[in-house]
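Exercise 7. Given the encoded structure of a 112-residue chain, write a plausible sequence.
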């Protein structure tokens, strides 16, 4: 019986050799420029056919754009008005309290 000097050594697995055939023939096909005939012409992008619009359609689209822009202007104006009104309220409320106190201290006692 023989004792293995390295018991932790993993066994070596040999891979089988694969036979590779060398390439002996290279097929080359020459490319010769030829005149483009009808079947080889370049593709051209064509726009799809679209119906012609009547003048009424253009006027309607212009009117819709005009109304949309005008409504946006009015909405912005209203928003600014509401913000300014809230700002005035927040400034005037403490001011009116202060003025009320001043008025009460300035009024002569015989009027109260």
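Solution.
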């Amino acid at each position: 019986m023989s004792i293995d000097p390295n018991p932790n050594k993993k066994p070596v697995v040999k891979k089988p050799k694969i036979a590779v055939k060398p390439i002996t023939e290279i097929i080359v096909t020459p490319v010769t420029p030829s005149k483009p005939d009808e079947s080889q012409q370049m593709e051209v992008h064509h726009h799809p056919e679209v119906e012609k619009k009547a003048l009424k359609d253009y006027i309607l689209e212009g009117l819709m754009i005009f109304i949309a822009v005008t409504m946006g202007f009015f909405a912005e104006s209203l928003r600014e008005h509401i913000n300014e009104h809230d700002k005035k309220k927040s400034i005037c409320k403490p001011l009116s309290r202060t003025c009320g106190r001043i008025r009460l201290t300035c009024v002569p006692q015989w009027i109260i």
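Remark. Helices lie at 55-106. Students should compare their own answers with the one above.
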